[in-house]
Backbone:
């Protein structure tokens, strides 16, 4: 059993097999981070608070893509809003997207030049 443990450890930690596994794995193209400039513009536009009406939470704010990256969304200013962690989680668990009515009206129609 000691020999088996050593072989398992070497298979997992040996640099050559590790590099082979890494080069053959499928890259996650959706994991690209939102650019810092876009995050800053979204925070300014949304005043750092959740964009669900009647929610004034300014703590634990997440960036949410209105059109998901997996459905050809992008990191454009118009596609990202701020949501508190609980509304962000609820949005993803419910499977419902955001309608225009679900976003605070004072924030609609703002572009990067109006910030």
Residues:
């Amino acid at each position: 059993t000691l020999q088996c443990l050593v072989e398992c450890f070497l298979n997992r930690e040996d640099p050559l097999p590790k590099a082979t596994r890494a080069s053959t794995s499928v890259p996650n193209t959706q994991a690209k981070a939102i650019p810092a400039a876009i995050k800053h513009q979204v925070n300014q536009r949304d005043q750092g608070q959740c964009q669900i009406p009647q929610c004034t939470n300014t703590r634990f704010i997440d960036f949410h893509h209105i059109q998901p990256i997996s459905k050809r969304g992008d990191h454009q200013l118009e596609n990202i809003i701020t949501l508190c962690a609980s509304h962000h989680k609820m949005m993803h668990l419910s499977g419902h997207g955001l309608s225009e009515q679900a976003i605070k009206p004072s924030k609609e129609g703002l572009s990067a030049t109006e910030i």
The beta strands are 61-65, 80-84.
